[in-house]
Amino acid sequence: MTRQSPAPQFDSTHGSSLTTSDPEDRARVLRQQALLEISRPSSPVGPPIRNQQYYNTDGRDSVVFLVENEQLFRIFRPSLVRHSETLKAMFSMPPGEGKLPHEALTLLYLADYLDVPELLKRMTIYVAALPSETIPPAERIYLYRRYHFSDTEWLCTAFSDILEGTFTRLTVTDLTHLGMPTVHLLIGIFRKLDRHRNTLAIKPPPPTHETDCQDHGSCEMGWLNFWATRISPLLLSETPASGSKITRLLGTWSVSPWPGMNFSCMWSTAREVAGLTAVVGADKSFIASAVSQLIAFTDY
């Protein structure tokens, strides 16, 4: 026999204090209430009431929400998961770090699902003010489009974060958030970006020889070996190094000798490569152009 969670009750002595024999049920309600108080300092007189349409008295595998500090919703979790891939992903997240953004997003999606305009408005403002790193980039793009956020920088940073990685890092949930028209556009952008990274990984800029270089062939071989073992892996990883990062690393690594390469040539080559912004640093301008294209794209 499945144990049913008792419905939350209110202590008549203290008016709005929520009491229940289920600690998990109580904790959920208190967390939602605390979060709502951030955007609504004043509360109505009297305890919240159960919503007549959306309060599941069964209680099995249900989620309790306090909306507007006025109404309690107890909704069958599988129903939410069945109707929303986003809520399904939210409920599958383990407890721990990032709990506040997680709960804020859950409230936002639930307000949208239950059509509670005032709560939806408040949570939209609240979520838009969250640090961008607390929400995955693809989901930030979905939020911006779905809830008409006004800060374009939010969208710009999200697309930049995606393009600074690789297409294979995108999950099924990411693709769902982006939508197929945007995914098709990203495939073409990543194809060009990957071509640049792959070409640079296997074909480095030529070395610069100084007057004291006595063996150009040995020096060039040392440069090719250095590029293949130190730079190429950075360009071909799931988090590819940017051109600016490569030039910074070359400046750092040139302090110690590169095997097989003349020391003067090593310094000159690092300096010359740092100046090749049209080659090594081409990814920066390409990503900036692609982000502008993605922001202007409206057929998503």
Would you give an account of this structure?
This protein is mainly α. It is 57% helix and 8% strand. It has 13 helices and five strands. The chain has helices at 23-39, 77-83, 85-92, 99-114, 117-128, 137-146, 152-163, 172-178, 180-202, 216-235, 243-253, 263-275, 282-296, and strands spanning 9-10, 18-19, 49-55, 62-67, 71-76. The strands form two sheets. The chain has a three-stranded mixed beta sheet. A hairpin with a 3-residue loop joins strand 4 and strand 5 (71-76). Helix 3 (85-92) packs antiparallel against helix 4 and helix 7 (152-163) crosses helix 13 (282-296). The longest helix has 23 residues, at 180-202. The chain starts with 8 loop residues before the first strand and ends with a helix. The model is unreliable at 1-20 and 37-45 (pLDDT under 50).
Q: Sketch the major β-sheet.
A: 3 strands, mixed
Helix content range: 55-70%
Percentage of β-strand residues = 5-15%
Gross morphology is elongated
SSE class: mainly alpha
Q: Whole-number average pLDDT?
A: 77
Radius of gyration: 27 Å
Tell me the strand order in the biggest sheet. Answer: 3-5-4
Cα-to-Cα separation, first versus last residue: 48 Å
The helix/strand order is EEHEEEHHHHHHHHHHHH
Helical run tally: 13
- Report the count of strand segments: 5
Unreliable spans: 1-20, 37-45
